[in-house]
């Protein structure tokens, strides 16, 4: 990182020491990802400032292993381990959180299609998504249904002939204005509660919905929007999985989503550590570099300890998943720990930068905003705590 903080991630020439704990395949993947991310990093300042996603980077992300890696070979992916896909996400988080968020949503959509799509749906949606020809989004949240996703009210009314008419509003949907299809959760019968919730593949070309921008504090290069479904007609062939099984389908991707966010948060913490260290060495006050002051060393040491601990936590959850364990508890712990750690580390980076760290365009300012997002989507910190409590004590605090 440059000392002023205005510049772009500048990786050390050699592999970072923490790659030594990866096997050679995984380290090679991380190296390839870092090379590509360094290549696209010059697009970051303008994209974040103008809130535009440079869509041309997506095929390259797929080529280095993002999204495709999470999908089995039989479905057109490359079937990487959970550890390898998470390491890719750490690299994306270190370079550019908006790119990590984009890769995360594409991965989620691809995983749902792979888990529940018919052969025909895989051909129409999954294959082109993995080829970088189609982009998908995922919509569950609504104005009245956030943490309590089962409370959603978007209605899917069955029409004569078997198709469905979707009406409702989805909120804060990542990249819905870019994607040409989305996975939308809606209820076929509100009286059935969670058992009425069904996943639908909604296509832009068919019309019936519009997006409304919701300009957001973090990850500014992604689009965040409400999706207003105004009677979008979805053919029966676009029901994803079984009618009434939409929520359990979404739960199938919950571990990898939480792991991906955890790894991305570790990347944010790593980037904050690198930026703050560079600044502490270059910036002089009282006739010497900040780096020589013990209180600044305390900030940097705490940042390094937290970034390293976050890495161990997400990698141990990934290794458990790779060993075939359920690991839902460990993925919740990981999401909780890593997202909170990223916030603490990014806050300390701002402190090391002083006023410069609060200025638009400064790397610490961006990391601070991007870290702030992490404790909210994919289950807030409070929901992770409740999950952990339920797993440990056998009692749900919610219902
Ligand atoms: C940048 C961004 C991108 C997003 N992208 C998407 C997307 O692509 N698709 C999508 O569907 N959604 C998306 N979301 C929405 C996200 O999933 C929700 O914000 C999240 O589920 C939390 O819901 P909420 O914001 O309505 O908060 P609420 O559920 O209203 O929670 C507000 C606060 O209350 C706490 N709380 C709630 N219930 C409890 C409880 N029982 N006990 C203790 N505390 C509780 C929460 O932890 C939180 O602190 C995105 C959000 C953001 C910020």
What does this molecule look like?
This protein is of the alpha+beta class and 399 residues long. The protein is 48% helix and 14% strand. The chain contains twelve helices and ten strands. The chain has helices spanning 24-40, 44-50, 58-64, 82-95, 97-116, 119-130, 246-252, 254-282, 294-322, 328-353, 363-373, 381-393, and strands at 136-139, 155-158, 164-174, 181-187, 197-203, 209-213, 224-234, 239-240, 284-285, 288-289. It has a four-stranded mixed beta sheet. It has a four-stranded antiparallel beta sheet with strand order 2-3-7-6, covered by helices on one side. It has a two-stranded antiparallel sheet with strand order 9-10. A hairpin with a 5-residue loop joins strand 2 (155-158) and strand 3. Helix 10 packs antiparallel against helix 12 (381-393). It is globular, with a radius of gyration of 21 Å. Mean pLDDT is 96; it is low at 1-5. Bound molecules: flavin-adenine dinucleotide. Flavin-adenine dinucleotide binds at residues 105, 138-141, 146-147, 172-174, 216, 218-219, 224, 373, 376-377, 380, 382-383, 386, 398.
């Amino acid at each position: 990182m440059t000392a002023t903080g205005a510049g772009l991630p500048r990786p050390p020439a050699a592999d970072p020491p923490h790659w030594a704990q990866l096997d050679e395949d995984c380290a090679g993947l991380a190296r390839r990802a870092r090379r590509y991310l360094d290549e696209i990093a010059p697009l970051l300042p303008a994209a974040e400032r103008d809130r535009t996603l440079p869509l041309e980077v997506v095929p390259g992300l797929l080529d280095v292993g993002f999204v495709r890696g999470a999908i089995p070979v039989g479905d057109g992916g490359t079937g990487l381990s959970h550890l390898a896909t998470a390491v890719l996400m750490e690299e994306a988080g270190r370079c550019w959180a908006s790119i990590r968020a984009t890769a995360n949503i594409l991965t989620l959509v691809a995983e749902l299609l792979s888990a529940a799509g018919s052969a025909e749906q895989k051909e129409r949606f999954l294959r082109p998504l993995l080829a970088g020809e189609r982009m998908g989004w995922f919509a569950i949240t609504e104005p009245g249904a956030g943490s309590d996703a089962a409370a959603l009210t978007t209605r899917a009314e069955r029409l004569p002939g078997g198709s469905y008419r979707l009406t409702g509003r989805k909120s804060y949907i990542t990249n819905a204005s870019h994607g040409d299809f989305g996975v939308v959760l809606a209820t076929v019968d509100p009286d059935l509660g969670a058992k009425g919730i069904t996943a639908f593949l909604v296509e832009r070309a068919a019309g019936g919905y519009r997006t409304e921008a919701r300009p957001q504090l973090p990850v500014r290069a992604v689009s965040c929007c409400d999706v207003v479904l105004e009677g979008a007609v979805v053919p029966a062939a676009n029901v994803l999985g079984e009618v009434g099984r939409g929520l359990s389908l979404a739960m199938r991707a919950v571990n990898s989503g939480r792991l991906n966010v955890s790894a991305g948060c570790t990347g944010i913490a790593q980037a904050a550590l690198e930026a703050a260290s560079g600044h502490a060495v270059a910036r002089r006050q009282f006739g010497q570099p900040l780096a020589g002051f013990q209180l600044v060393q305390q900030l940097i040491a705490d940042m390094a300890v937290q970034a390293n601990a976050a890495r161990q936590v997400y990698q141990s959850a990934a290794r458990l998943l790779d060993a075939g364990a359920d690991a839902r508890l460990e993925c919740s712990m990981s999401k909780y720990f890593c997202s909170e750690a990223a916030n603490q580390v990014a806050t300390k980076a701002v402190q090391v930068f002083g006023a410069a760290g609060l200025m638009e365009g400064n790397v610490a300012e961006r990391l601070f905003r991007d870290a702030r997002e992490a404790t909210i989507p994919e289950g807030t910190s409070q929901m992770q705590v409740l999950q952990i409590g339920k797993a440990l004590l056998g009692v749900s605090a919610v219902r």
